[in-house]
Specification:
By secondary structure, the protein is mostly beta strands. The chain contains one helix and eleven strands. Strands 2, 4, 5, 6, 9, 10 and 11 form a seven-stranded mixed β-sheet that branches. A four-stranded antiparallel β-sheet has the order 1-3-8-7. The longest helix has 6 residues. It is globular, with a radius of gyration of 13 Å. 33% of the residues are buried.
Length: 124
């Protein structure tokens, strides 16, 4: 069974930082690229960041470039999203996803497994 479990969400002031973690099953984590998506209230789920299986290539949404960093630790079967300089507009639910191959992609359709999400709230 493939399982993705997010953690690290919470309440933070604008300008602060949070680090989200996503623990995945070993087999899935070692095979697939991983991604982070987010969904604001009343809106669709949008791409945030992605990383290849090897960790050698990453992609970021324009809205988070320079502020967020995706990384992975294959020994721990965990992918991270370091979020710095947080803004009130970052107040959304963040979802971890495992892709269907080892590459990176921004498309939701290319991700076969999803976590349940973790809430991030940024106060001004």
């Amino acid at each position: 069974q493939v399982q993705l479990v997010e953690s690290g969400g919470g309440l933070v002031q604008a300008g602060g930082s949070l680090r989200l973690s996503c623990a995945a099953s070993r087999r899935t984590f070692r095979t697939y690229g991983m991604g982070w998506f987010r969904q604001a209230p009343g809106k669709e789920r949008d791409f945030v960041a992605a990383i290849t299986w090897s960790g050698g290539s990453t992609l970021y949404a324009d809205s988070v470039k320079g502020r967020f960093t995706i990384s992975r630790d294959n020994a721990k079967s965990t992918v991270y999203l370091q979020m710095n300089s947080l803004k009130p507009e970052d107040t959304v639910v963040y979802y971890c996803a495992a892709g269907n191959n080892a590459g990176v992609t921004i498309n939701r359709r290319d991700y076969g497994y999803w976590g349940q999400g973790t809430q991030v709230t940024v106060s001004s």
